[in-house]
Amino acid sequence: MPHLHHAALGFTLILFFTALAYLRGWLSLRSSIVNVTSAWRALSFLVGLFLIWVAVASPVAELDHQLLTVHMVKHLLLMTLAPLLIWLGEPVLVLVHGLPRSPLRIFHRPLLRRIGDLFGRPQFCWLFAAGALVIWHVPGIFALGMKSAAWHFVEQSSFLAAGLLFWWPVVHPWPSVSKSDSSMILYLFFATLPCDILSGFLVFSDRVVYPIYFSSSHLLGFSPLVDQQCAAALMWTCITIIYFVAGAILTMRLLSPKGFSQAGLGQSELCGAGIARRVSQSLEAL
Fold it and tell me: Domains in the chain: how many in total?
């Protein structure tokens, strides 16, 4: 449909210019903050943006009306993989140096800082992510998102927002304060429960939960029920593996000799006064 192609083009341009701004900031910091400007961080952020593009603007994204499995892949990219990779790239810190100065004036507003403190609370992040997962898989709401372009956009946006919120207290990107906290391991464990319940229900159900896929032309010769089972098994397996790996990394950091001065998947290198001083100088220059 023409409006879908226009939306895909718009998303592509937004992601492209975001990547340019990030690279500009990364190059600006390259000579002063080595740990932040490691090549793997830039690669992580760019791959995260690419996965968002795959989920919302690539030709693959248009197949989610044909297969529930493709629809589930989009959810995994937007909620799990892309947000994690983006936060590992330290985007806020780098974009502070890559964007024009005028947009960065918002960092001075106390209200936004208070909102950021709220959004960084693990309880809020967990509930938001679990709620987004459960609500959008209720059959009636799922059908609404598939039939309406506007609601489909809201659905995808909420998944991405939920993913970014969920991974924030785990990764501790700047401006989070890095701290050693074993509760993040429980946080990841309990986050698997809504996924396990939903996946188990879809895998073992003997009926098609989402009737919209009865009328679609099924690719790869999948029946609607087999497609549903494959989608649920994919979500079940991927979420379990990713959360297990993240939990294992956090456990190793906590048990390491420096564990009490490190926390998060990507924040352990960022606890220097030089970084805070450099960022403060950048914001004061605005």
Answer: 1
